[in-house]
Write a structure and sequence with these properties.
about 80 residues, mainly alpha
Amino acid sequence: MSGRSVEELLFHWRAVIGQAPEGFPRDFALSIQRARKRPAWQPTAKQLVIMQRMVGELFTHADDGPLFEGSGGDDVELIERD
Protein backbone atom coordinates (compact mmCIF):
# COMPACT_ATOMS: atom_id res chain seq x y z
CA MET A 1 0.00 0.00 0.00
CA SER A 2 1.46 3.31 -0.96
CA GLY A 3 0.62 6.34 1.06
CA ARG A 4 2.01 8.70 3.60
CA SER A 5 5.04 7.62 5.58
CA VAL A 6 4.74 6.86 9.28
CA GLU A 7 6.69 10.06 10.01
CA GLU A 8 4.19 12.13 8.02
CA LEU A 9 1.24 10.44 9.67
CA LEU A 10 2.67 11.16 13.11
CA PHE A 11 3.37 14.78 12.11
CA HIS A 12 -0.38 15.26 11.57
CA TRP A 13 -1.44 13.11 14.50
CA ARG A 14 -2.29 15.93 16.92
CA ALA A 15 -4.76 17.28 14.37
CA VAL A 16 -6.25 13.78 14.04
CA ILE A 17 -6.72 13.62 17.81
CA GLY A 18 -8.32 17.06 17.79
CA GLN A 19 -10.89 16.06 15.16
CA ALA A 20 -11.53 12.47 16.21
CA PRO A 21 -15.08 11.91 17.47
CA GLU A 22 -15.69 10.19 20.80
CA GLY A 23 -15.58 6.41 20.81
CA PHE A 24 -13.26 4.17 18.83
CA PRO A 25 -11.70 6.90 16.65
CA ARG A 26 -10.62 9.01 19.61
CA ASP A 27 -9.55 6.02 21.71
CA PHE A 28 -7.49 4.69 18.80
CA ALA A 29 -5.87 8.08 18.15
CA LEU A 30 -4.94 8.47 21.81
CA SER A 31 -3.54 4.93 21.99
CA ILE A 32 -1.29 5.65 19.01
CA GLN A 33 -0.16 8.88 20.69
CA ARG A 34 0.85 6.91 23.78
CA ALA A 35 2.49 4.09 21.81
CA ARG A 36 4.62 6.40 19.66
CA LYS A 37 6.55 7.47 22.75
CA ARG A 38 8.06 3.99 23.08
CA PRO A 39 11.52 3.57 21.59
CA ALA A 40 11.51 1.85 18.19
CA TRP A 41 7.70 1.69 18.07
CA GLN A 42 6.20 1.05 14.64
CA PRO A 43 2.49 0.64 13.88
CA THR A 44 1.19 -2.78 12.90
CA ALA A 45 -0.13 -3.21 9.37
CA LYS A 46 -3.69 -2.86 10.66
CA GLN A 47 -2.88 0.28 12.67
CA LEU A 48 -1.13 1.78 9.65
CA VAL A 49 -4.22 1.34 7.46
CA ILE A 50 -6.42 3.07 10.04
CA MET A 51 -3.85 5.85 10.55
CA GLN A 52 -3.68 6.45 6.77
CA ARG A 53 -7.46 6.73 6.63
CA MET A 54 -7.70 9.08 9.61
CA VAL A 55 -4.99 11.43 8.34
CA GLY A 56 -6.49 11.29 4.85
CA GLU A 57 -9.80 12.50 6.26
CA LEU A 58 -8.08 15.68 7.44
CA PHE A 59 -7.44 16.59 3.81
CA THR A 60 -10.71 15.50 2.20
CA HIS A 61 -13.09 18.10 3.58
CA ALA A 62 -12.48 20.60 0.77
CA ASP A 63 -16.19 20.95 -0.02
CA ASP A 64 -17.09 21.92 3.56
CA GLY A 65 -16.74 25.59 2.69
CA PRO A 66 -13.95 28.14 2.66
CA LEU A 67 -10.81 27.27 4.58
CA PHE A 68 -10.54 30.74 6.12
CA GLU A 69 -13.31 33.07 7.21
CA GLY A 70 -14.04 35.57 4.47
CA SER A 71 -12.34 33.68 1.65
CA GLY A 72 -14.66 32.78 -1.16
CA GLY A 73 -12.16 30.77 -3.13
CA ASP A 74 -12.86 32.35 -6.54
CA ASP A 75 -11.76 35.85 -5.56
CA VAL A 76 -8.21 34.90 -4.62
CA GLU A 77 -5.60 37.28 -5.96
CA LEU A 78 -2.37 35.59 -6.93
CA ILE A 79 0.97 37.21 -6.26
CA GLU A 80 2.88 37.67 -9.48
CA ARG A 81 6.58 37.04 -9.36
CA ASP A 82 9.13 38.25 -11.90
